[in-house]
């Protein structure tokens, strides 16, 4: 039974979402504040977190960063009442794997949760696999073990970051549109969510030590998407 930690300050929303998730078969723990959510994180050990962006006290963005510092691989689904692009992008930059804009239908939230869980499950299931390591300069990608090292040091990646790197590096030189990456990594079909791709690329580049102006591995194809280049 997937374990979901729901952090939402609005009582009516919190109770409604928790009830809907339980009906879908999830084990749900709910928290009203970011501080309470971090405490529940340690005791409940969720499979995925649904985190409201606007929280009293400790802001949702700070909660997201704190969770990422504790666990790089924990799927975090950000929920926000704002549809503003800036707020969403800032949340994604803080480490969220995906987002939904409230009010959100239960079936949409469930689909997003299932998608992030599939990504995380694929990573966990790969542990202990027969190594198939592809080396690109100082970057090594273990496709069977789903692990990445940069200059010999392990690079902790969130599920969406790892899946994005695996997708791009599987076909060096091939140009992928944002839409193609959105569907392959996040299983979305709505073109407006292309900002997920851009934010994830920026996080991935930073973790790989990529210079922002002249990245060596993940290059931008202006007006279209991205490609992976092997040095």
TrEMBL record:
Modified residues (4-aspartylphosphate): 52
Protein keywords: DNA-binding, Phosphoprotein, Transcription, Transcription regulation, Two-component regulatory system
Keyword Transcription listed: yes
All copies of domain Response regulatory, residue ranges: 3-117
PROSITE patterns: OMPR_PHOB (PS51755), RESPONSE_REGULATORY (PS50110)
Residue span, OmpR/PhoB-type domain: 131-230
Keyword Protein transport included in the entry's annotation: no
Name of the protein in its database record: Response regulator transcription factor
Species of provenance: Streptomyces purpurascens
Lineage, opening ranks: Bacteria, Bacillati, Actinomycetota, Actinomycetes, Kitasatosporales
């Amino acid at each position: 039974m997937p374990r979901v930690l729901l952090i939402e300050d609005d009582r009516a929303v919190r109770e409604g979402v928790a009830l809907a998730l339980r009906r879908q078969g999830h084990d749900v723990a709910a928290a009203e504040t970011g501080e309470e959510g971090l405490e529940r994180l340690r005791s409940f050990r969720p499979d995925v977190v649904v985190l409201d962006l606007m929280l009293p006290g400790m802001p949702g963005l700070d909660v997201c960063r704190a969770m990422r510092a504790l666990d790089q691989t924990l799927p975090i689904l950000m929920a926000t009442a704002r549809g503003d692009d800036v707020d969403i992008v800032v949340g994604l930059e803080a480490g969220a794997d995906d987002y939904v804009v409230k009010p959100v239908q239960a079936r949409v939230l469930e689909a997003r949760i299932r998608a992030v869980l599939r990504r995380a499950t694929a990573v966990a299931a790969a542990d202990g696999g027969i190594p198939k390591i592809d080396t690109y300069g100082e970057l090594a990608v273990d496709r069977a073990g789903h692990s990445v090292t940069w200059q010999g040091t392990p690079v902790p990646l969130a599920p969406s970051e790892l899946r994005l790197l695996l997708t791009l590096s599987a076909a060096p030189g091939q140009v992928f549109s944002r839409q193609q990456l959105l569907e392959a990594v996040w299983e979305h079909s709505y073109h407006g969510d292309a900002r997920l791709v851009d934010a994830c690329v920026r996080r991935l580049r930073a973790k790989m030590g990529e210079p922002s102006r002249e990245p060596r591995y993940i290059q931008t194809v202006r007006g279209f998407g991205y490609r992976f280049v092997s040095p």
